Amino acid sequence: MSNYRRAFLPGGIFFFTVVTHDRNPLFYCGERIEVLRTAFRKVKAVRPFHIDAIVVLPDHLHCIWHLPEGDSDFSSRWREIKKAASREIDARTGGRRERAVWQRRFWEHAIHDEVDWRKHVDYIHYNPVKHGLAARPSEWPWSSFGRAVSSGWYEPSWGASEPAAIAGMELE
Fold this sequence. Notes:
Layout: E1 13-19, H1 30-46, E2 50-56, E3 60-66, H2 74-89, E4 107-110, H3 114-130, H4 145-150
Antiparallel strand pairs: 1-3, 1-4, 2-3
Helix pairs in contact: 1-2
């Protein structure tokens, strides 16, 4: 059994990495991304949280959530998002009545401060370039990069080369 302990910080801000089962490229098209968006909307309607940044790649996603004051339960939110998306993507279940859509767990990091937050936001938005899926973040349609540009966080041309602040970061 693992000694890993989750960081439960009420009202906290967290970076997440969530991976598909066996790294299968399940999120390869807009229809599948819409299934995931619907799952997020469904859970957010019942258990609110704010998404600061997100990117969905074919076999994993990264995002930063800001939980409501007094609330530290990101695990049940992820469970419900995964369940809702899984029902739409693969109806078959295995021996444990699980669908082979997601890895069982996810990885989280509690954001410490503004510098840590910015570094992780940059990592999220640069991720499609890092994986060779786009030449720059503005070319990847399944990310919050466009919203970040509209908010003034980035110039549209940002990310044509790897930003120094995230060089060597491996959060896969």
